[in-house]
Structure formats: structure tokens, C-alpha cells
């Protein structure tokens, strides 16, 4: 088409086209650029914020682990104020939750159960991480029971639990039931914990077995079973193992 | 801080981190690609879309191998370190740490550049003399195939994973109440008395009829399963086998001694000092030469002129050389000097040296008497080694297709040995060796009666074997197991008989009889066990376990029980008192240690739960091998 137009006419057409569409195009380009740089800026500022929280958390851990894990009062004050700062500025961030979990442990070690409960409750209310929620629940239940509120503790442990956490929850339930004097229930809970223990949790098995066994002894108190125990054990000859290798 | 974090590492986390840092330390000179199957970049697994490559896997296997070796020394059986053995556990660990790493990063954990730097400078593999060295760092990265940016990313990932793990394990705790409950049980002490009624004294008067034995045999066939077994004859070769018959003549010993003497003298050691002038600066050379000629102190001149930073403050001292430490022209000049003398300018690639001979060390050669026994032993073992190698080659030929190994053994003048029957589980003597068992049970050896290949158990220990007896799996015939059945039934019968006496004793006790008197009347020894804790081994362990199963004595009085232990002895036991353990009775250190231990067990279990939870949620795909 352009072949039939004179140069003048072509310029005119371009000018008209620009008058109609120019504004839109400029706006589009500006918007796209703004969007791109805005996104970049947003990403950088998110990263900067995350790094700030990370640095705060590292300072926190340094304070709370000082003197080989025995921080003095000043270091504890520092740790607490950093933790507060994390809670205020990054309440939904992972680091605020981790700091609160650690402060709860420090408090529990000092038998300051009220503070421990407060910190764990904060984690439960604020964390976005399902794993931390599960951990906090279990720990909070133990602390509540220790504070003389076993039923509130048990309530926390109710409801569906992922199979990975089943043994942990059952063990804590056993501890609380035992505290309440419900020995049969406690024993059942310990046995459930043993049954649902993960292979990687073998270290806990011995302790669980000990707790369960001590209860089976206590619980049999009502009826004397010892009568039945005599002579019923299967007797094995001293060289029982020889059968398999007799021909060697 | 991070040091203390690392001190707290446990289990998997420690392995991951140690593996990573260990990897950096041992990286030099390892060819990762040896033994790798498939391409380096092929994925062996995918975790939420993130690939674990064959290269990653090979690196991790190599790390694990190095870790095992540095922990247990060189004596680890080779098949424990093989790719096949390590592949699966290492891959599982890679997948699980990949899951953790992603979880840490997804949760929003990051590391600032400064924090990463702080960690990098602390890695021993990047240090020289305890200080971070940028050149060493760059070289190491290049060897590992990382760019600086790539390596920092890897560091960040690993550091946040560590943060994530520590956040869980280091925040675990145990409440005082829980600790008290654990101590009450674990440190519980019980006081009890018991007598053992030994089954042994009844065995002789107990009889068992053939029909009883037959019945037991028929009813318990599963107890008499015999595994497949073989017996072998074998020729075992070691250099020691030949050492005894080797005579070493005094002439040979003398000749060897003369040789030692000659090479000993060649080993004169000279201690050199130098002043190094780098480059081509004739003026400086002349200046130093002039000052030396004027008799100025060599050490002082070295201090002010030498370009060798390593030696100039030590007066140019370079230590000892046996003639092969420095460049040839340097060594020649040094060898021509008298002690204390300084050479003229000597040129090497480094520049111009003035060399001073500080000291000559001519150690006294040992006398013939001192050396002759050692030399004779050396010669004998070298000769034995040669004969061993020769015999080994001949053995391979002789044993191949031989109907029996007696011929080859005679030919080589070594003994032919035989083994007892053994199963795939192995047996005594030579059959304890896995390689021997595997060779004996190989189909062509076990079934076709062929001789095995020469099996090299170690560099100096080889075996050839042939199966001489092969028993398929089955049930032991009654005759063979009869003595055991008789023994067993006798014990059961005698034990039952004893149980009646034990119950009588128990009844008498419950009627208020005195345990000591009753025991004495029955010619039994009363054992008193006070403040007994859980645990123990053997019969005593069984008795303690029973004592702890009993409920605590209550208002109705003591608890008395009878039971049989596993060898048939009967026990009458009276539990007198139960004392729960008390946390407050422990010293404060013990208390702290106990609470820490409980917290650490709890933290470990919680970490395992988190890891499992994340793995359950993750999308994990393993490539077919």
C-alpha cells in the first residue's frame, strides 16, 4: 500500500497513527519498566529484610549460647530483647519462632514454666510452619502439665496427628496421664509410642520401655500374679545354641 | 557461636556437616568420576523437582568412605567401603538432607554475604597455618568445580539447613517433673532376698524315655533345621610358609651390609644457609660479595639483603640436605665448601645465591654385628616373598582342573588342609572369612566340584579351595540331636520337680517363716541383694529383672514369688522394699547431665519426626539404577 503513497502522505499517516496510539504505547512501556524494576526492588528489599532477621537471629543464638550454654544475666537480657525485636518486626518469620522456642527451653531449664508457656503459646499462635506448630504443641502440653494443668495439656494433644509425630505425642500423653495417676492409660500410651516409634528414634526406645515396664509392675498391685509366674517359663538347656551348629 | 552450634551437632546433622567440610579438606587429587556409572549430570533422584546428580552421589560416597577410613583406620574391610555398600545409605542421606535444606530455605531462612564469609574463612581446608588464604580458596574451588558464586550458594544452603536443625535440637528441653519421673524409675533401688534351687543336682536322677524324645523331636521339627553345609579342602599360601626353609648365607648378609654401608656414606647431610638475590641485579651481587669479602657477618647480611622471606630472619638457614633438596648447581657448590666457608655467587632459577655451609653431619654407620640379624631377616622375607609369588603363579596352573588339591599341594611342598562343615553363615578357622565362604558356595565349586580360583584374602595371603562334602539343607536326623533333646527334657522335668519345692518354700515364707532358717534347713544359700538397680547380665540379670517386675510391697506385707531362670534353676525371691530414685539426691552436676541427656534424646526424636514429616510431604523420585 505504501508504494502508492508519496513521502509526505506516509509521514502524515505515521503522525496520525502516533497521535492515536502514542499515549498508550508510552504508558505501556513505562508501566512495564516500572513493574520490572518494582519487582526487582521488592525482591531485593524482601531479601534484605530476611537477611536482617537472619543476622538478628544469629546474634540471638550467640547471646543465648554464651559461656558454653550458660549465659549470664546480661546476655540473657540481650537475647530476650533481640527475640522481642524479631517478634515485633518479623512476627510471621521463621526466626521469631525459632528464637521463641529457644527461650522457652531456657526458661524451662530454669523451671520458669510461666515464661516457657508464654513463649510456646506465641509460637503456636504465630508460626506459619506446620512442623514448628507440632513441636510447640507437644512441648507446650508438657509445660502445661508441669504447671499443674494436665487436662489443658492433654487437650492440646487431641485431634489428628501426622504419623511422623504420633510417637512423640503418645509419649507426652503417657507422661501427663502418669502425672494424673492414670497408670493404665499411661502404660497404653507408652506402648503406643513404642509401636509408632520411627527407626531414627531408636534412642528413645529404651526410655519408653523403662517407663512402660515400671508401670506394668505398679499396676499389677491389685492382684498378685506371682503365683502364676512360677515354673511357667520355658526352660532351655544351657547349650541351647548348639543345635544349629551341632555338625561343625 | 557457630562453633558451639557445631559442638551440639548430633546424628545425621553431624554427618551431613562433617561430610561437607570433610569433603573440602580431602578434595585434593581425588578423581570423582572413577567408578561412576552413567553420566555425571544424570539425576539419581529428584526431590521436589530438585535433582541429585550422579556426581553429587559419587562425591558423597567418596566423602563417606574418607570419613569411615579416618575414623576406623585402614583396616576397614574393603567391601564395607565399596560403592555398592555405600550407595543406598548415602543416597538416602542425600535425599533426606535435600528435603531438610529445601524446608529451611522455603521457611525463609537466609544467610547474609557477611555471615557466609565468616564461615568460609573458618574452613580448615582453605587455611594455611591456621589463617584463611585466598589463593588456596580459589584453587580448592577450581578443583571442586565450583564458581565463587556457586560455592557461596552451596554454603548458604548448608548453613541454613544447619540453622534449621539446630533450631529444633537446641530448643528441646525436659521439665523438672518429667526428669523426676524418669529418675524415680531408672534409679529405683530394690532390696530383696532370694535362694536358687539348682537344677543340676536333680539331672542325674531324672530319666527321659525314648518315646518322649521322639515326641519332642516330631513336635519341634522347626528347631532342628540344618542349613546347607559344605566342607572344603584347601591350600593356603603365605610368605611365612616359605620363610623357615630359606637359608641365608653369611656371604649374602655381608654383601647386603656392604651395600648399606655404601649408600649410608652417600647420605652425608649438609646444612646450608644462603643469601638470595632475585632477578638480575649485578650491582647488588657485587655489593654483597664485597661485604662478604670484607668479613661482614653472613647472618646479618642475609637479614638485610636476602630476598628469601622464609630464611632471611634465621640468618639464611635452610636446614639439612642430603644432596637432593636444592637445584643441582646449588648442591654442587654446597658440596665443595668447608664448614663455615661461603661460596661465590651461584645462579639458579630463583636468582643468585651466596651459600654458606653451616654444618656437616656424618652419622656413624652401624656395625655388622648390629645389623646382621635384621639384614638376615630382611633377606629371608624378601626371598620368601619371591617364592610366595612364584608358588602363587604355579598354584593357579596346578589347581586349575585338578580333581583333588593333594597333587598341587605336594608339588608345591605346602600342606593340604581341610575344614569342618560350615554353612553360608561361615564357620571356624578359614571358614570365618567371607571371601572363602562365598567361593565355597559358588555353584561351580559347590555343585560341579571344580576348584575355586585363587582367592587373595590379603596381598600376602591366598587360598585355593575345593568342596569335598556338600550337605543340602534339611532336618538333623534324630540320632544327631538326641543328646540335646535329652538334656533339654531332663532340665524341664527336673525344673518342674524343683518348682514344687520352690512353691512349698514360698508357702512357708508366707506363713511367716524366717527365710534364712528355711534356706538353711533346705541346704540352700540365702542371697541378700540390697539397693539393687535395674540391669545386670546372665542369671543375676534375670533375677533382677524379675525382682523389678514385682509390685511394691504394700500393707499386706512383702512380695514373694517363685520363677525359673532360663537354665532351669528355680528361684524363690522375697521383695522387701522399693525405693524410687530421687532427682534431688543427685549432685548438681549429675542433675544437669541427666536433664541435658533427656533433652538431647527428646531433641533427637523431634528432629527425626520433623525429618520424616518433611519427607512424607515431599515429592521424591528415585531413578532406576
Question: What does this molecule look like?
Answer:
Chain A: Keywords: Cell membrane, Chaperone, Membrane, Transmembrane, Transmembrane helix. Chain A: This is Ancillary SecYEG translocon subunit. Chain A: Belongs to the YfgM family. Chain A: It is a single-pass type II membrane protein. Chain A: It is found in: Cell membrane. Chain A is an all-alpha fold and 248 residues long. Chain A is built from 11 helices and no strands. Chain A has helices at residues 7-64, 66-69, 73-89, 94-109, 113-126, 130-146, 150-156, 163-179, 183-196, 202-219, 226-229. In chain A, α1 (7-64) runs parallel beside α4 (94-109) and α6 packs antiparallel against α7. The radius of gyration of chain A is 33 Å and the shape is elongated. Chain B is of the alpha+beta class and 625 residues long. In chain B, α10 (210-219) packs across α20. In chain B, the strands form 6 sheets. Chain B has a 4-stranded antiparallel sheet with strand order 16-5-18-17. A 4-stranded antiparallel sheet of chain B has the order 12-7-14-13, sandwiched between helices. Residues 1-37 of chain B have low confidence and may be disordered. The two termini of chain B are 42 Å apart. Chain B is extended and about 115 Å long. The chains are: A mainly alpha (248), B alpha+beta (625). Chains A and B meet through α1, α4, α6, α8 and α10 of A and α7, α8, β6, α20 and α22 of B.
* N-to-C order of helices and strands of chain A: HHHHHHHHHHH
The radius of gyration computed from the alpha-carbon positions of chain B, rounded to a whole number of angstroms, is 38 Å
Q: Summarize the main sheet of chain A.
A: none
Strand coverage percent of chain B: 15-25%
Assembly state (oligomeric): heterodimer
Compute the CA-based radius of gyration of chain A: 33 Å
Pfam families (chain A): TPR_21
Keywords (chain A): Cell membrane, Chaperone, Membrane, Transmembrane, Transmembrane helix
Protein name (chain A): Ancillary SecYEG translocon subunit
Domain Ancillary SecYEG translocon subunit/Cell division coordinator CpoB TPR (chain A): 15-216
Amino acid at each position: 500500500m505504501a508504494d502508492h503513497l508519496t513521502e509526505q502522505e506516509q509521514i502524515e499517516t505515521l503522525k496520525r497513527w502516533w497521535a492515536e496510539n502514542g499515549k498508550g504505547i508510552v504508558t505501556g512501556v513505562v508501566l512495564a519498566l516500572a513493574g520490572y524494576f518494582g519487582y526487582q526492588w521488592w525482591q531485593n528489599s524482601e531479601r534484605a529484610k530476611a537477611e536482617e532477621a537472619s543476622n538478628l537471629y544469629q546474634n540471638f543464638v550467640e547471646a543465648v549460647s554464651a559461656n558454653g550454654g550458660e549465659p549470664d544475666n546480661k546476655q540473657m537480657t540481650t537475647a530476650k530483647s533481640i527475640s522481642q525485636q524479631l517478634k515485633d518486626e518479623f512476627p510471621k518469620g521463621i526466626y521469631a519462632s525459632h528464637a521463641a522456642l529457644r527461650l522457652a527451653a531456657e526458661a524451662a531449664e530454669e523451671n520458669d514454666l510461666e515464661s516457657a508457656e508464654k513463649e510456646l503459646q506465641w509460637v503456636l499462635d504465630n508460626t506459619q510452619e506446620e512442623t514448628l506448630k507440632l513441636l510447640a504443641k507437644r512441648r507446650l502440653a508438657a509445660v502445661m502439665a508441669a504447671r499443674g494443668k494436665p487436662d489443658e495439656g492433654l487437650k492440646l494433644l487431641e485431634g489428628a496427628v501426622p504419623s511422623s509425630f504420633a510417637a512423640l505425642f503418645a509419649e507426652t500423653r503417657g507422661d501427663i496421664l502418669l502425672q494424673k495417676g492414670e497408670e493404665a492409660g499411661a502404660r497404653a500410651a507408652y506402648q503406643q509410642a513404642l509401636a509408632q516409634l520411627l527407626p531414627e528414634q531408636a534412642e528413645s526406645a529404651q526410655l519408653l520401655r523403662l517407663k512402660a515396664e515400671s508401670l506394668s509392675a505398679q499396676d499389677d498391685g491389685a492382684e498378685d500374679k506371682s503365683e502364676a509366674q512360677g515354673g511357667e517359663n520355658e526352660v532351655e538347656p544351657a547349650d541351647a545354641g548348639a543345635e544349629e551348629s551341632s555338625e561343625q | 557461636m557457630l562453633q558451639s552450634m557445631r559442638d551440639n551437632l548430633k546424628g545425621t546433622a553431624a554427618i551431613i556437616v562433617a561430610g561437607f567440610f570433610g569433603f573440602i579438606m580431602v578434595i585434593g587429587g581425588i578423581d570423582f568420576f572413577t567408578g561412576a556409572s552413567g553420566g555425571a549430570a544424570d539425576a539419581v533422584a529428584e526431590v521436589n523437582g530438585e535433582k541429585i546428580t550422579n556426581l553429587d552421589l559419587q562425591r558423597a560416597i567418596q566423602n563417606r568412605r574418607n570419613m569411615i577410613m579416618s575414623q576406623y583406620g585402614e583396616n576397614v574391610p574393603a567391601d564395607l567401603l565399596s560403592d555398592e555398600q555405600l550407595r543406598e545409605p548415602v543416597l538416602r542421606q542425600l535425599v533426606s538432607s535435600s528435603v531438610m535444606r529445601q524446608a529451611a530455605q522455603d521457611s525463609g531462612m537466609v544467610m547474609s554475604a557477611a555471615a557466609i564469609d565468616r564461615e568460609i574463612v573458618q574452613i580448615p581446608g582453605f587455611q594455611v597455618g591456621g589463617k584463611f588464604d585466598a589463593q588456596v580458596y580459589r584453587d580448592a574451588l577450581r578443583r571442586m568445580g565450583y564458581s565463587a558464586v556457586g560455592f557461596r550458594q552451596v554454603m548458604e544452603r548448608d548453613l541454613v539447613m544447619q540453622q534449621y536443625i539446630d533450631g529444633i535440637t537446641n530448643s528441646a528441653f525436659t521439665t523438672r517433673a518429667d526428669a523426676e519421673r524418669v529418675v524415680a524409675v531408672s534409679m529405683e533401688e530394690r532390696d530383696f532376698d532370694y535362694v536358687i534351687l539348682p537344677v543340676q543336682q536333680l539331672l542325674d536322677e531324672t530319666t527321659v524315655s525314648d518315646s518322649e524324645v521322639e515326641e519332642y523331636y516330631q513336635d519341634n521339627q522347626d528347631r532342628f533345621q540344618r542349613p546347607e553345609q559344605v566342607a572344603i579342602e584347601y591350600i593356603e599360601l603365605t610368605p611365612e610358609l616359605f620363610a623357615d626353609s630359606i637359608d641365608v648365607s653369611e656371604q649374602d648378609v655381608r654383601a647386603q651390609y656392604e651395600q648399606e654401608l655404601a649408600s649410608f656414606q652417600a647420605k652425608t647431610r649438609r646444612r646450608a644457609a644462603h643469601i638470595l638475590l632475585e632477578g638480575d641485579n649485578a650491582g647488588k651481587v657485587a655489593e654483597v660479595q664485597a661485604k662478604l669479602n670484607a668479613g661482614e657477618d653472613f647472618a646479618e647480611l642475609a637479614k638485610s639483603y636476602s630476598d628469601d622471606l622464609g630464611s632471611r630472619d634465621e640468618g639464611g638457614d635452610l636446614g639439612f640436605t642430603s644432596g637432593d633438596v636444592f637445584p643441582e648447581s646449588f648442591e654442587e657448590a654446597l658440596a665443595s665448601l668447608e664448614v663455615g666457608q661461603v661460596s661465590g655467587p651461584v645462579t639458579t632459577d630463583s636468582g643468585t645465591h651466596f651459600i654458606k655451609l653451616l654444618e656437616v653431619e656424618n652419622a656413624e654407620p652401624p656395625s655388622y654385628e648390629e645389623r646382621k640379624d635384621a639384614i638376615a631377616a630382611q633377606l629371608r622375607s624378601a626371598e620368601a616373598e619371591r617364592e610366595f609369588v612364584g608358588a602363587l603363579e604355579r598354584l593357579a596352573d596346578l589347581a586349575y582342573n585338578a580333581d583333588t588339591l593333594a597333587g598341587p599341594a605336594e608339588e608345591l611342598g605346602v600342606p593340604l588342609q581341610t575344614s569342618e562343615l560350615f554353612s553360608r553363615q561361615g564357620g571356624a578357622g578359614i571358614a570365618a572369612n567371607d571371601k572363602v565362604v562365598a567361593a565355597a558356595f559358588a555353584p561351580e565349586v559347590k555343585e560341579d566340584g571344580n576348584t575355586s580360583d585363587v582367592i587373595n584374602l590379603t596381598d600376602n595371603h591366598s587360598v585355593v579351595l575345593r568342596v569335598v562334602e556338600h550337605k543340602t539343607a534339611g532336618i538333623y536326623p534324630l540320632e544327631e540331636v538326641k543328646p540335646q533333646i535329652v538334656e533339654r527334657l531332663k532340665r524341664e522335668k527336673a525344673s518342674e520337680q524343683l518348682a514344687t519345692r520352690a512353691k512349698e518354700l514360698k508357702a512357708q515364707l508366707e506363713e511367716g517363716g524366717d527365710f534364712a532358717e528355711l534356706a538353711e534347713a533346705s541346704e540352700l544359700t540365702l542371697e541378700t541383694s540390697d539397693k539393687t538397680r535395674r540391669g545386670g547380665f546372665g542369671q543375676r540379670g534375670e533375677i533382677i529383672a524379675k525382682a523389678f517386675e514385682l509390685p511394691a510391697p504394700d500393707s499386706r506385707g512383702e512380695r514373694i514369688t517363685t520363677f525359673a531362670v532360663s537354665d532351669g534353676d528355680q528361684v524363690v525371691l522375697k521383695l522387701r522394699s522399693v525405693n524410687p530414685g530421687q532427682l534431688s539426691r543427685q549432685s548438681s552436676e549429675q542433675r544437669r547431665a541427666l536433664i541435658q541427656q533427656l533433652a538431647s534424646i527428646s531433641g533427637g526424636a523431634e528432629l527425626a519426626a520433623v525429618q520424616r514429616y518433611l519427607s512424607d510431604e515431599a515429592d521424591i523420585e528415585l531413578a532406576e539404577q
